[in-house]
Amino acid sequence: MTPPGPALLRRFRRGAPGRSRLLLAAVLFLAFLATFAIDWAVSPAAQAATSSPSASASSPTGPCTVSTTNGCIRGTILDAERKPAVGVDVDVTGAGGFDQTATTDDSGRWSVSVTTAGQYTVSVDQDTLPKGQYLTNAADADRKVSATLNANVGQIFQLSDQQGATTQADTSSFSFARAWQQFASGIRLGLLIALASIGLSLIYGTTGLSSFSHGEQVTLGGLLAYVFANQLGWNIWVTGIVVTLLCAATGYLQDAAIWRPLRRKRISLTQLMIVTIGLSIAAQYAFQYFFGAATVRIQKGNPETLSFAGITLTVQSYVAMAIALVVLVATGLFLAKTRFGRATRAVSDNPALAAASGIDVDRVIRFVWTLAAGLAGLSGVMLGLVLNGVNWQTGLQLLLLMFASVTLGGLGTAYGALAGSMIIGIVVELTNLVLPGDFKYATALVILILILLFRPQGIFGRAERIG
């Protein structure tokens, strides 16, 4: 590798002025944020103020919004072409003589507000279905649901153009239209995983550390978005920017308070990895303590769907994919074209040589932790919108997919993490054609094992002699 030029050496000399002041300002800002978050989480009055019944409880005919005094049973009905079914009546009955009917709107959505927690029956009036459309399973017309206050319960009814079709046949039979839909979902999943995986790969490349707490950065992004957008009513675009910056600040403080002091004490990578595992567990229980175990939604309303080229996804999905693509391209250009990006790649390639050339390795590592945490936080916001919910273990559930992605692409390479994420995302979603439910995530484990057996260096990694 060609040593960096004089300009690059001057830029990355050790001992940049003002670092102590920046660190102190960041600590004070995060302390203020933590105090605010704790006060909001433990104060019932604050929660009641952000979701008062007068502001959030809806009329029987309008869209339902959850509050402390009511819950919502809502759903979407799509026809055989995955287009909204308009004008379908859905009857909700329950204890105490509760009986309310909702009609699907132009987007196929319906909602009913309930003021008592308990068991309810959701029934579709098949006489109101569009002409030539039938439930995939006639017995599926009546469903039992458990509703609670201040929470949403969702139900999706799928229609077919063949009378007598069954849900089981619909979900297990192969069709090119369904494969095309799953392929698009795989691209969406791959792009969102890549946002978090690139940071995980850069951390490993510059420090040699596999961070098991990286998934909690994704969870943090989603939960902060829930606080700002859902509870405080912020604009979703402002929320995304603020959450990304706050998550990036947590990465900066992590390196300043934990990782750099441990590196200076020459703590082994195994010990550092154990610290990340402990940090992951502590963060998970902190999330559960402040936000509870239930899944929370970033946006209160039902997501709208949009069909394009035979693919039906929510509007949030299309926007999230576009944002992820722009951010990933910008990150790649930054690493390839800027001085700091080249310095990051130099440290990732050979930290000792980079330090001997005059590059401030600690400063580059600090930047990598900041960038990785920011990208993971943005990924959490996007995932929360796409999945229509986030909970305290969202990041933990994606951690295996992230490790499989960076291993497949090649540990320590940002471009490898992107390629690996796309492959993992597509394969996982296509697996849903033959495997039901969340069994599809087991595919990532199979791929990880095969990679380690036959090409442990990954797609873009280099084979190295050990010993």
Walk me through what this model shows.
The chain is of the alpha+beta class and 467 residues long. Helices cover 56% and strands 12% of the residues. Strands 4-1-8-6 form a four-stranded mixed β-sheet, with no helix packed on it. A four-stranded antiparallel β-sheet has the order 3-2-5-7, with no helix packed on it. The longest helix is centred in the middle third of the chain and has 32 residues, at 176-207. 39% of the residues are buried. The model is unreliable at 6-18, 20-25, 35-61 and 165-172 (pLDDT under 50).
User: Structural class of the helices, strands and pairings?
Assistant: alpha+beta
On the 0-100 scale, what is the average pLDDT? 79
Helical amount: 55-70%
Name the helix and strand elements from N-terminus to C-terminus, one letter apiece: HHHHEEEEEEEEHHHHHEEHHHHHHH
- Going across the biggest sheet, name each strand in turn: 4-1-8-6
Structure annotation, total helices? 16
Strand coverage percent = 5-15%
Biggest sheet architecture? 4 strands, mixed
Cα Rg:
25 Å
Query: Are there runs of 5+ residues with pLDDT below 50, and where?
Result: 6-18, 20-25, 35-61, 165-172
Distance from first to last alpha carbon: 23 Å
Question: How many β-strand runs?
Answer: 10
Shape: elongated
